[in-house]
Amino acid sequence: MRQAQIHLRSSVGSGFRAWNPPVPKLRPYQFATEAQKSLERCETAYTSQQQKIFHIKIDQMQVFLNRGVSMQAFSLEITSSQTSTAKFCPTSFDLENRVSFDHIFNTNEPINIYTDGSKIDDRTGCSFCVRENNISTSQWMAKLKTHNSVFQDELIAMKEAYTYASQSNQPIKIRTDSKSSLHSISSLKTNSPQAQNIQNILLNSPNINLGWIKGHVGHADNEAGDLLAKKATLKGIRTQYPAHRNYLKKKLHVISTQLWQNGWDNGDTGRNVHLILPKVKTSPAPCTDQKP
């Protein structure tokens, strides 16, 4: 709002001088104190803004994680990122007919590839093994970073298996005990970059089909793939893949909560409330008022 300027004739000379009315000062009670912020269970403007920045800016954090930089030392000033979207024409997307979710999966094909992923404590790995006429002919193992999820492990192993299978013209069946991975691959709306890479390979390799096989029921080839994935957590080829967005969001939540807690512990106001509510929370506090 433009401030009105009242021009008064000066008592000395014939000039004019501008007079601006004083801006009213805000009273102390008009400012949110640290106690208010804690009682309302809402994060401070600083940490809230950092979360907003994070949701649009994520790639640099992935690069830092891939280089082994600790999250505690990571700056929240990060660059932009966009969620991947599928780019296939619906009329040419026929993967639904090439993915089987029936646990009774025909094993009479000459070449079968079994994929699996494993996460044991802080160790992550994935693998695939190739069986030709019931004889193991090839295998692949990768050791991933701690921030990689089991879902990512499964898709990474499947992508490597599809890359291997795409070099052959023979009919090949790729099997996994991960239904979530198969659903992601067979969906036109998937946002997973790994799943989209697999889709691209499959659409250009009609000799490859895939299907679900029930895990941990005594199927020898699948159990061998599971043991190979566990071995990969220790002896696999060190491989780097970006962290999943959900993992980074959880990490950001931990960091922003720590910043909020530090501000609450070291603030100058609301010290009496701090004695009652020493810990900050993002969930609403239950009402404890009772009617007489």
From TrEMBL:
Reaction equation(s) it catalyzes: Endonucleolytic cleavage to 5'-phosphomonoester
Biological processes, Gene Ontology terms: DNA replication, removal of RNA primer
SUPFAM superfamilies: Ribonuclease H-like (SSF53098)
Enzyme Commission identifier(s): 3.1.26.4
Family annotation (CDD domains): Rnase_HI_RT_non_LTR
EC main group: hydrolase
InterPro entries hit by this protein: RNase_H, RNaseH-like_sf, RNaseH_domain, RNaseH_sf
Domain of life of the organism encoding this protein: Eukaryota
Key words, A-Z: Endonuclease, Hydrolase, Metal-binding, Nuclease
Molecular function GO terms recorded: metal ion binding; nucleic acid binding; RNA-DNA hybrid ribonuclease activity
Pfam families for this protein: RNase_H
Domain named RNase H type-1: residues: 107-234
Similarity comment: Belongs to the RNase H family.
Protein's recorded name: ribonuclease H
Gene source species: Araneus ventricosus
